[in-house]
Amino acid sequence: MMPFLFLILFLNTAWLVYLTYIVYKKILKSPQSNQPPVFVSGSIKLQLVRFNPFNDVGGDQSFILCLLDKTNTGVIITSLHTRDSTRVYAKAIKNGSCESQSLSKEETKVLIKTINS
Prior knowledge:
The protein is of the alpha+beta class. Helix content is about 35%, strand content about 25%. It has a domain at about 45-115. The chain has helices at about 1-30, 105-115; strands at about 45-50, 60-70, 75-80, 85-95. A four-stranded antiparallel sheet has the order 1-2-3-4, covered by helices on one side. Strand 3 (about 75-80) and strand 4 form a beta hairpin. It is elongated, with a radius of gyration of 23 Å.
């Protein structure tokens, strides 16, 4: 039974190596695209603000990261750090507002600051 398991393991590993080789070769042989990169200089507005939402945690360990494009569409990522855990929230922004969820006062300030930058 043991040699059979080693044979199966070897064949699976060989198959994975072969597939990796094929994908690697395909990437190397693909023609280079003349399309501009997704992130062109000046196309993304970014703000990062660190803050302390809780009195029992020292330092500004929590943060809000706001990423918007030219149409003020993007995402706000909020990380809240407590003594016991860290929670991360992502909220979609479309045309300068969040339609699906309410924003905290800190998130609203960062969103306005990002739009005006």
